[in-house]
Amino acid sequence: MLSSGDQPLRLLLVGRLALHPLPRQITLRTEQTLRAAIATIRVERFDCIVVERELEDGDGIVLAPAIRRIHPMALSILVSEHDRWAMVEAAHHLGYSHVISKSELPHELTSIIERYLTERGFGDKQNKPKQSRLHLLTLREREILSDIATGATTEEIARKRHNSVATIKSHLTSIYRKLEVRNRVEAIAKLEN
In angstroms, rounded to a whole number, what is the distance separating the alpha carbons of residues 92 and 23? Predict the structure, then answer.
């Protein structure tokens, strides 16, 4: 499926996670602990980093700032036993692009990685349709994007969503980064394409 000049997607799994079956376009590296993961992240390049929340030596959520700083374009996914709203919000605020419940792990993770492979051009380039980046947004980010499309202000969205203005601004920053836009007008234009 890869063209001769293409490099495989480099995936790091942190924790006791397993991805089966592994698509051919992926080169896999695994680490069991936070300490080992940080050392590996510093010296190797990864396109996708999947972190289990409950690790032997700590909480995997704390890896997000290091991933964001060292690999800003990498897809970062946190896998947790629980998907409580506050934890999901914290994970997104720290920089994780996705949070997956462990019960949904095989299907959801495979789906996210396949979309990422297609979007980044790891598949057949001749048949590759132009992909929207909207699939990268979380459900909450999509809701906020639809709110800004109606012309709602940040304060109005915060009241409607029962969040602080700072939380909404954080979501907007994440939306702009994922859609590769600079402002609301450009984000809305992405919706129309």
Answer: 26
